[in-house]
Amino acid sequence: MDSKDWEWLVNNVFYTAKFLEISLRNSQNRACQQSMHIHCCGSKPHREVIYEMGGKDGNPPDVREVFVKTRKIDENIVEPETRKKYDELKMTMESEPTLTNLQVVERCFGRQHHGRVFGYGGGLKRKHFESTSQIEELKTKLHDKEEENRKLMDRLEQIENRLVQVENERVEHSDTNTSSNTNDEHQKGV
């Protein structure tokens, strides 16, 4: 780059009030991120980590597993604040195992806005988790209905077996009465 072009860029872009305001805000945001749970997986996106940890098989890891996988170096969590947050995630998930990943994240990190969900990178937004939780809820309802249906089918089979048994007993009883009547008539006739 030519030095005159660089001077123009510095004077006309980098020192404008709007650029300085954005730069200050970005510096503050980055400082907050530095002190809080920086991921250590390099340029690999969180969704790739999730994919490799079982997402490709339809069995994605929970938020705690993703959190620790993306924030450890050589099998150790580096930052003490990150360790505390991991312990909080663990305790929340163990105390309330029915919570969805989104609910766990919101309990530990606050309300997640439309942009992205903490711990999942920029790839997964809140709406993805909501539809996932709705799917899980529907799967649970389906499982319950399948279980109820199975019980009803078992009960129906028991009733049908009992009906066959009663009909067989009735036929046997009828045959016994018929043969008894035939024997009585045969003896009277002799």
Provide the descriptors you would attach to this structure in a database record.
mainly alpha, 190 residues
Describe this structure in words.
With 190 residues, the chain is mainly alpha-helical. Helices cover 70% and strands 2% of the residues. It contains 7 helices and 2 strands. The chain has helices at residues 3-14, 17-34, 46-52, 63-69, 80-95, 101-109, 126-189; strands at residues 72-73, 76-77. Strands 1-2 form a two-stranded antiparallel ribbon. Helix 4 (63-69) packs antiparallel against helix 5 and helix 5 (80-95) crosses helix 6. It is rod-shaped and about 135 Å long. The termini are far apart. The relative contact order is 0.06.
Question: What is the overall shape?
Answer: rod-shaped
Biggest sheet strand order reads 1-2
Q: Biggest β-sheet, characterized? A: 2 strands, antiparallel
Poorly predicted regions: none
**Span between N and C termini?**
132 Å
Order of helices and strands: HHHHEEHHH
* Radius of gyration based on Cα positions: 35 Å
SSE topology:
Elements: H1 3-14, H2 17-34, H3 46-52, H4 63-69, E1 72-73, E2 76-77, H5 80-95, H6 101-109, H7 126-189
Concise synopsis of the structure shown:
The chain is mainly α. It is 70% helix and 2% strand.
